[in-house]
Amino acid sequence: MRIHIVAVSGTGMGPLAGLLRSMGHEVTGSDVAFDPPIGPRLLEWGVQCQKGFDPAHLAYGPELVVIGNLCRASNPEARFAIDSGLPYTHIGGALQRFVLPGTRPVIIAGTHGKTTTSVLTAGLLEAAGLKPGFLIGGVPQGLERSFRAPPVERSLLRPGRPPFVIEGDEYDTAFFEKTAKFLHYAAELVVLTSIEHDHIDIYPSLADYLVPFTRLVSELPESGLVVANAADEHVVRIVREHARCPVIWYALEGQHTFGVPPHWLAAPSAADASGSSFDLFIGGVAVGRWVTPLMGRHNLANLTAALALASHGFGVDPTGLRTTVAELRGAARRQELLGSPDGVAVYDDFAHHPTAVRETLLGFRSRHPEARLFAVFEPRSATACRSLHQEVYPDALAVADGVLLAPAARELPPDQALDVPRVARDVAERGRWAGFFPTVDEIVRALAERAQPGDVIAVLSNGTFGGIHQKLLSALEQRALARGSAGD
Q1: Is domain 336-487 given the CATH code 3.90.190.20 in the classification?
Q2: What is the pLDDT of residues 221-242, one digit of tens each?
Q3: Mean predicted lDDT score pLDDT of the chain
Q4: Going along 2-139, which residue ranges are E strands?
Q5: Confidence (pTM)
Q6: Nearest 10 degrees: CA dihedral of 119, 124, 129, 131?
Q7: Given 3.20.20.140, 1.10.1330.10, 3.40.50.2300, 3.40.50.720, which CATH number is that of 2-89?
Q8: Which of 4, 134, 366, 415 is the 20 to 30 A CA-CA neighbour of 479?
């Protein structure tokens, strides 16, 4: 078919475009910008990209228009498609039509850890020989692409419906379909990592935010499966009250599990620059010490969930996955080392919710226990830019030795907006060096002056952050060159 995707350069719609293209469809797409990490890959995947939104982009007569969830009702292309009678749908509709029939959909859902757990789950199922299809809202490390179509034919050794792993976003589906995206994916197996109030722009209260997760769990068939985090109070309550299918609980040693004994328990052992080690217990039985290149307790939980899903959902023997676990690295932009110019390790991470910020920084602490840690944070998401977490961000950021804060990326009324300079002051009151910097260039200059060889810089943003990553690497490289010239 000839398919046009409006707002194609997002972390969800971009991989969808690539997936449809890989299945033989002619795919065009439009967006206001084609920034990394998805933008450049669209061309590699054979998607014809058009900049800006213009009804003329649909003049060739696409047989289907897929409208991204970031589009408003006034979007010129979406408006033209609807008003002129072109067939149109959203990401869920496209998956239901072209991809999901004949598969066992595996939905990775939760406030935190969706992308990493999706990558790990797909990687483990691949290592087990199940040849899963998948659609991941990001760039996986260790998998060739962010997507793969389900196999057309099944071997005699692996009969039945193949798994299709989807990163299940709770954000609404489209301006004309205001339900969570993951409710459109015909879930049969679900990993539920966490539930913590987020996306305040569409879920004003925690009660509102719980509704789609409750529906996801309650609508699973009795033949389905939930792999659920026993250390999350909201997860435990929803799953205990609404799941009609079998439930497998997981947790880390020492976590409070709200009255449910975990079937899978990971006990962190040690961590260093090469990664982490942990002891794994299944049903109370030790299955040895494992190693992973991932850092942080939150990623051990993600890995445990993925192992449990592969084992109970598809009969995979987890002990045969030790080598794979030791190699899987999760997703790009999740604790991703960009470089170490002049001896300063610069990492990129997607963290923006205060819980994710704290756990991510603790992960850096465990990997680099002797290093000074600088956190550079840009409030960018609809939730991060609001005052909802005004009192929580300082404690999360104070895990670092130094904190550099950028202005919030969204302008809101003063009574609703996060007071970023106040966050900086509150971090300083906790004994850390902290500052608010109005521009990216000022942040880069401050780090180039303060960071020394052996230090670690963690750049935290769910956006491009004004190109800070390359600017910072370049500044540190120039500093090293200048130091070398002075030595000569």
Answers
A1: yes
A2: 999 999 999 999 999 999 999 9
A3: 91
A4: 2-6, 26-31, 48-51, 64-67, 88-89, 104-109, 133-135
A5: 0.83
A6: -20
A7: 3.40.50.720
A8: 366
